[in-house]
Every structure is written in C-alpha cells, then in structure tokens.
Amino acid sequence: MAIARAKPSRLVLFDWHESSLFRLRQALVSVAPDVPVQAVLGDVRDATRLVRVFTEVRPATVFHLAAYKHVPWGEEDPTAFASVNVLGAHAVIGAATSAGVGRIVYPSTDKAIDPPSLYGATKRLVEAQLRVAASSGGPTCTIARFVNVLGSQGSAPETFARLIRQGEPLSVTDPAMRRYWITPAHATLLLLHGGCLSEDAVIVAPDAGEEIEVIEIVRRLAGQLAPGKPAPEVRVTGARPGERLAEPLVAPHEVLVHVPLPGLLAVRGIRSLDARAVGDAVGEIGRLLSVGAPDGEVRNTLFTDTWTLR
Which CATH number fits domain 43-303: 3.30.1120.10, 3.30.160.390, 3.40.50.720, 3.40.50.2000? Predict the structure, then answer.
C-alpha cells in the first residue's frame, strides 16, 4: 500500500497464490486508482518465467518478499525451505540481473545471524547471494533484517490474540524468551527507507528499542483485548528446535550506526565474502534438491559456512 501511495509509474505484483493476488490488486486499485497495477501469477522458483516477466517489465526496483518463514516448520522440512528461500532468491537475482534492475530490497531476519535454525541459515545464504551480485555488476541491494512484527500472519501475537478472545489457554515456549518487536508500519518504513539508501550493498536493522519478554507481550495483549478479566492461563511448552532465548540484531563483529532516515540503523563491520564459494553453496543446494537428497544433506550444506572470509 505504501508503494502504491508513492505513485510509481507502474506496480507489478508477482505471486503464486491466485486469491491473495486478486485481493491485493483490488485493494491497491482502491488506494491508488491512478497507478497502473499488473498482477502476474508465478512461482519464484520458475526462473524461465521470472526472466520473461522481468524482461518485459524492466522494473527499476524489486521488493523480493517471497519466503517460507516459520522456524519450527523449517526444521521439519529443510528441502521446501531451501527450495523457496535459497533457490527462489537465486532465480529472482538472476532475472533481475538480466533485466538490468537497479535495486533489490530484501527482508531478511535477525535469525540469519549465527543461525541456529534452518530458516535462519537459508536467509543468511540469500544475504550472501545479494551481496555477491551487487559486487559483481548485478543489482544493488538493501537487506533489511526484520525482527518480530506484531500482527503479521502466523506470528505469535496473532495466535495469542485469537486465543485470548476465545478465552482459551495460551502456550509459550519459555517465559524468559525475549524478542525485539516492531509494528507493521515500522516494518514498512524499514523496507522503504532502507531502499532509499545509496550504498551498493547495505544491511539495515530496525531501531527497535529494548527486547521484550514474550510473556510480557501476552500480558499487554490480554490487557488490551480482555480488560478487567483474569489473566489468561499460560502453559510453558519448552523451546522448539531452531529457537534460542534471544535474537541479536548483529553478530559479535558487527555494529549498528544511525543513518539520516528514521526507523532504521545500518549494520557495519560486515565480513567479506568468497563469491565463488557462495555460488558453489547455492549450486550444491540446487544439485541436492534435483536428485532428491535426504534432508540431512541439505541441512549440512546450509550450515557449512564456507563463503565468509574470517
């Protein structure tokens, strides 16, 4: 919606889900009726279709939002996550390069930092792909390391809110688990302002304040949604595979610095990459998936960081 309100000369939507794409196009037309909106059905893993669409449209900026993102699910199905997140990004970068796209804006995650999860490992490899492309004549890139977005689809607060309204018990994995939280408006600002930075390859993170314990989010939601009622019952289930108590915004060798645009911080101190090793890692993921290799082999490749120069 924010992009449509900025009145681009043309807005092209690319998605595989017909109903979602239809609803989004209708919403955009009502918000910005003067902006030409084109909806294209397709899968980010279909490199041939991506090249055709990008060549016809010649977009100036690409917001690559497609990804599988649920951490526990990634532990159960590494192949699906590697296919969409890693190979889908590879196809998008290739199509964007061939079409002369100026910039790719990509929502990564704080979970990509020294990742304990399969999901985070896929995002780390996409970060590397984008940086390599930007350094070798491809599109420049903005990588936005997202934190938890309140109210996003499938998020813990969305589930908490539904259960609170229904008067049902809530489950948390660990009362001490802490996360950074931002609003949907802040998430949009992170992408839009990050995309305005002129560096060839920049990683940004939200200016998110302090971490908040998940149990505190439960208390605040209950106070808003069920004021005056007893606090909801909370059941502790224990941490799930791929989770950790806190998600850092930067790695130990990185620092956050302020930039002129509000709502975001730039990540500095990022380590250099071995471009060939990044390509080899992506190629190996593609090979493993093409031969139906076991999930363990896919996982091992994603967690073997051979491309970061220490």
Answer: 3.40.50.720
